[in-house]
Amino acid sequence: MTHIAIIGFGVVGGGITEVIRLNKKAILRATGDEINVKYILDLRDFPDSPYADRVVHDFSVILNDPEVKIVCETMGGVNPAFDYSMQALRAGKSVVTSNKELVANRGVELMAEAKKNGVSYMFEASAGGGIPEIRSLRTSFGGDTVSEIDGILNGTTNYILTKMKNEGADFADVLKEAQKLGYAEANPAADVDGIDAQRKIVILTAIVTNQLASCDKVYTETMTKITPADMDAAARWGGTVKLLGSSRIDHENGKAAIYVCPTFVPNSCPIAHVDDVYNGIRVNSPVTNDYMLYGRGAGRMPTAGAVVSDVVSILSGVGAKELAMDWEHAEDDFVLPFGDISFAYYVRISTDSVDETLEKARLVFGEIEVLAGSPAGCVEFITAKIAEKDANAAFEGGALGEVQSRIRLM
Fold this sequence. Notes:
This protein is 37% helix and 25% strand. The chain is an alpha/beta fold and 410 residues long. It folds into three domains: 2-129 and 301-328, Rossmann fold (3-Layer(aba) Sandwich); 144-296, 2-Layer Sandwich (Dihydrodipicolinate Reductase, domain 2); 339-409, Alpha-Beta Plaits (2-Layer Sandwich). Strands 7, 9, 10, 11, 12, 13, 16, 17, 18 and 20 form a ten-stranded mixed sheet that branches. The mean pLDDT is 95.
């Protein structure tokens, strides 16, 4: 029997015990052994839980028990999760985590410590919940070169945008509903302002480049300004609006364009049809071309299941070696300046003179595609590709009129 410990007995931590109970036979087949949750570290007591007798409040109890071989860290946040994880690795215990904030900020140090001590640091659950996207990128693309990643990486924002699309509802109303249903936190900023997706796209980029970019180098834009009018325009254009985490990787020059922003996605792309709380990740490479991963990107059981899958990999030896990573901190110039990246844009402008506004737009952007069916008093068009900094300059000063909306195209 293999003894493990869980640090943080919240939504995911509690799910780990349930997954182990439900999949006892499958785990035994895969590993030839049973898993026993010997300790649960939390500030709280859980008197009504069947695991109440496993709860401890002092991490040293776990650290000093040689029977504990694997620590499952589901606390969230960087501290004290980083300190606990480093101590466990130094003590010769493998660590499995669902903590995307920790991996995105301190993954380099944790992987180096795991390698130094001959143990594993694994984090399938940190990006994509129950979707095995880290395994896919690390193993299935091991002999390929991933050049593009586009992902719906946050189920909360995708649920909101889906409701706005299907019901014509306002952002604020759907957010309240999402909070009532438990999809959104009381403070939803990490989701709706793109921070959650930012951490995940940094992790996914590091997997295929071995370079961990600093999160503060990644342009991240809120989706709170998206309106029903934007959703309607996207539909008339032939697509929908999604909050995407994207990465464009130039392996030859060692650079990457990494960003998170609301995006017009054409219906021809499978990501456009990923709705509700589901996640979808499109990967492109020279050999495989487009590849799609789809599933529940969050939630108690999918995320806990991903944690347990890492535990099983360590115990069985199947995949643990292949999934080991040795990242480096990216140089400051690894992430391309966002202003240098080129996009086509959807633009909506208030105007009393459609013809005059379109003429000004053509002088600035060259050839444009005018969208039919614009709301009264507005003109809508799609630009050719233009660098972000040049687009910003074009809209400064109000020369084109009052810009109601500007959204990048995929």
